[in-house]
Write a structure and sequence with these properties.
- The protein has a single domain, classed as Spore Coat Polysaccharide Biosynthesis Protein SpsA, Chain A.
- About 35% of the residues lie in helices and about 20% in strands.
- The protein is globular.
- InterPro entries: Nucleotide-diphossugar_trans.
- This is Glycosyltransferase family 2 protein.
Length: about 260
């Protein structure tokens, strides 16, 4: 019998041992055998560490979740390579299914040009994130909450750019790189998750900036980064690249550029 593909699950957290315990339990209950769970503690204080904590670094100003996931990936790269990587927040939980990892592997195996896939979210405000009846549905971007990624893609492109301290926009840049090389991103309609939300920024336990400051900073950084890095027409160029070979319903490049501009 062939060995099942390997999966590395990288979860980032900051001073939330309660969520770490719940998140680890979710993945331990999944019967998929060939998996490793890595908990990256982003500036977590000693009293808030758990038995699951794998990597800890000091981070008084909180460099962000992209930075934390990259720390976790660098740690793993020193040890071994995996067939698939799951980059997950500590407050995201798959609904109604205990076993879902094998299902995500199957989706990847059936769609060889799929680089990144995300479950959907009922009631989500993120464009395209609501579950439909399509199955595997190409998108410009998905919400950066639960990203299941092909190992080949991770080895070539790494993870989301750690310069995005507030996360917003990082998946847009990453998707442009993938679509430029013939890969694509998708939502998978047959899995959906619960996102608790508001568990890091503005939460007193995590010692971060307020939610209001986070929203303003995230918008301003993303807007200026893309104009400075890719030019004034970046959203048009990104959309033309993504949509030339895939049928995509929502142009999140354009939509989010307009949303980010509201903080200028």
């Amino acid at each position: 019998m062939n060995k099942q593909p390997s999966i590395a699950i990288i979860i980032v957290s900051r001073n939330r041992p309660d969520l770490v315990e719940r998140s680890v339990a979710q993945f331990e209950q999944d019967s998929y055998p060939n998996k490793d769970i890595l908990i990256v503690e982003c500036g977590t204080e000693p009293q808030n560490l758990t038995a699951h904590s794998t990597v800890l670094y000091s981070d008084d100003d909180f460099k962000g979740k992209c930075f934390g996931h990259n720390v976790g990936l660098d740690y793993l790269n020193l040890q071994r390579e995996y067939d698939y990587y799951l980059f997950c927040m500590n407050d995201v939980f798959i609904n109604d299914k205990t076993d879902f990892l094998a299902e995500l592997v199957s989706v990847m195996q059936q769609n060889p040009e799929l680089g990144v896939v995300s479950p959907t979210e009922k009631g989500a405000k993120y464009p395209g994130a609501e579950p439909q009846s399509v199955g595997v549905r190409p998108v410009t971007t998905s919400d950066y909450l639960f990203l299941f990624m092909r190992g080949e893609v991770v080895r070539k492109y790494g993870f989301l750019n750690a310069q995005f301290k507030y996360c917003w926009g990082a998946i847009h840049e990453y998707s442009y790189k993938l679509y430029s090389d013939g890969w694509y991103l998708a939502y998978y309609d047959h899995l959906d998750y619960l996102h608790l939300g508001g568990t890091t920024y503005g939460n007193k336990a995590t010692k971060t900036i307020s939610r209001e400051d986070y929203l303003v900073n995230a918008k301003r950084f993303a807007y200026q980064y893309f104009v400075d890095t890719y030019g004034e027409d970046w959203d048009t160029r990104f959309w033309q690249t993504a949509s030339r070979i895939r049928n995509i319903e929502h142009n999140t490049y354009q939509a989010h550029r307009a949303y980010w501009a509201s903080a200028l």
